[in-house]
């Protein structure tokens, strides 16, 4: 799968960001959560505590993010779907949720291609990867480290 930016009617061309480059470069068997991403975020912010807080907030907001994406897709709201999936992809990459970020990138591609049926078909996988990512973050990084 190649996550190349494509233009879609009514949507601006995607900007290439560090997180989109990270997602595009992932191997097929990307780790569920890459701990180096949170460490890097801590270094960039000059505060591991702030990075950990971001990850904690990410886990708390997961249900809301998913509901926003699912609702927009089910309503056929292309702009709302794109907003929700870009938020999910970027924030997931920032906390190291590589498989979820990769899947969100695939969903983004479906939206850019105007393939709402394919985008909707990915919702179940997004829900599963999201729950797994949150569980891993809570167990390994957010709850057990001081």
From TrEMBL:
Q: Which InterPro entries match?
A: HPT_dom_sf (IPR036641), Sig_transdc_His_kin_Hpt_dom (IPR008207)
Q: Enumerate the spans annotated as HPt domain.
A: 62-126
Q: Where is the signal peptide?
A: 1-24
- The yes or no answer to whether the keyword Cytoplasm is present is no
User: Which keywords, in A-to-Z order, does the entry hold?
Assistant: Signal
Q: Does the keyword DNA-binding apply?
A: no
Instruction: State what protein this is by name.
Output: HPt domain-containing protein
Lineage, opening ranks: Bacteria, Bacillati, Actinomycetota, Actinomycetes, Micrococcales
